[in-house]
Write a structure and sequence with these properties.
Blueprint (H helix, E strand, L loop, with lengths): L9 H9 L19 H11 L2 H7 E2 L19 E2 L5 H14 L2 H21 L11 E5 L8 E7 L2 E7 L6 E9 L16 H13 L2 H7 E3 L22 E2 L5 H15 L5 H10 L7 E6 L7 E6 L3 E7 L1 H4 L2 E7 L6 H10 L4
Parallel strand pairs: 1-3, 7-9
Antiparallel strand pairs: 2-3, 3-4, 4-5, 5-6, 6-12, 8-9, 9-10, 10-11, 11-12
Helix pairs in contact: 1-5, 2-4, 6-8, 8-9
Length: 347
């Protein structure tokens, strides 16, 4: 049986759309029971698919489709939620929960709920479909060998790679919100990605005039994140104010910004330990462009040799957020998967 629900809120959406009755574990933002590992969760979903579902959802690990990611509304390859049964959606929930933190899962659910709200605001509800999100699995899910998977639709592209064992590499991880602040209706004022904006604005306002001048990389914000949907994220230079030029309190805010992105997935703790203990503060740069006034266009990024965060809110009168986390070493499995191919008989 297929279900369609276009009136539920974000938590109710997740409960109705992804999970069988009684199985929703994140309704209160907490986690209950043992977390299933990603490989087991992916295999459980595959086991529930018929031949047609497998043909849509499964790809070879070295298929170029793995790099065909985007965050705009467009046609996609993979198995959409709309084509899943209730039981299959429950398995899709388990897979997403295995890779995401409670925070990240609820953000993803909220972004999908915004599709319904955007359709109502535009007066074209048929154009925005909260079931138009796709699962794609690359290779054979395994606790030992390499594989990857993606959950993607408008304003959401979550890419995971497991080069070996159960360690999951995250990236690119894109989250967007339109509207960034819901202007009217029962959810007026709702900001699913509000903390990403508020923390960065608080950091800029904590700076001295000299620090703020050094952190400002442009007077006008760009119209979108600069790296777009590039397969490999690269910027020409490190710009802005480095963390070693900040006070202890300011650096704490900077790390909270990073934690807000890294903490969306189960690997967030490992990333924060690495950033706080292994990456020199002089290698981490915060850059801001555009206005400091709420409701006006702005952009920021946190850039280090091993990761990049970009955030842009300029479109639709600065009420439309695009944000992304990029692992500059291991997006799409990167160096780790390359080493696997070099050392194995895969080809």
């Amino acid at each position: 049986m297929k279900i369609r629900n276009r009136t539920a809120g974000p938590v109710a959406w997740a409960a109705c759309l992804l999970v069988p009755l009684g199985a929703f574990a994140l309704a209160a933002g907490g986690e209950t029971g043992a977390r299933m590992d990603s490989a087991s969760a992916a295999q459980a979903l595959i086991d529930l698919l018929d031949a047609t579902g497998r043909e849509k959802a499964l790809f070879p690990l070295d298929d170029e489709e793995r790099f065909n990611w985007h965050f705009v509304p467009r046609s996609r390859n993979g198995l959409p939620l709309a084509d899943m049964t209730t039981e299959q959606r429950g398995a899709a929930h388990d897979l997403l929960q295995a890779a995401m933190s409670s925070q990240g899962f609820l953000k993803a659910s909220a972004i999908i709920e915004l599709e319904r709200i955007l359709g109502l605001l535009e007066g074209r509800p048929e154009r925005r479909d909260p079931e138009n999100y796709y699962v794609s699995i690359f290779g054979d899910p395994s606790s030992e060998g390499p594989w990857a998977w993606r959950f993607e639709g408008h304003h959401l592209s979550l890419n995971f790679s497991s080069p070996a064992g159960l360690l999951t590499v995250t990236g690119p991880a894109f989250m967007g919100a339109n509207p960034a602040r819901v202007p009217s209706g029962p959810k007026a004022g709702w900001r699913p990605l509000g903390r990403e904006e508020d923390l960065a604005r608080a950091l800029m306002r904590s700076f001295t005039p000299d620090q703020r001048e050094r952190a400002t990389i442009a007077a006008e914000a760009p119209s979108d994140i600069l790296t777009g949907n590039d397969r490999e994220a690269r910027l020409d230079a490190f710009e802005g104010l480095s963390a070693d030029a900040m006070t202890v309190a300011q650096r704490a805010i900077l790390f909270e910004i990073v934690r807000e992105y890294a903490g969306n997935t189960t690997t967030g703790g490992d990333w924060m330990a690495r950033i706080e203990n292994e990456i020199p503060a002089g290698d981490i740069h915060f850059g801001w462009a555009g206005s400091l006034e709420p409701g006006e266009g702005h952009y920021y990024r946190v850039h280090a040799p091993v990761f990049l965060i970009e955030y842009d809110n300029t479109q639709n009168d600065a009420n439309h957020v695009h944000s992304v986390w990029r692992d500059l070493e291991n997006d799409f499995g990167g160096d780790a998967l390359a080493r696997h191919y070099e050392e194995s008989d895969h080809h």
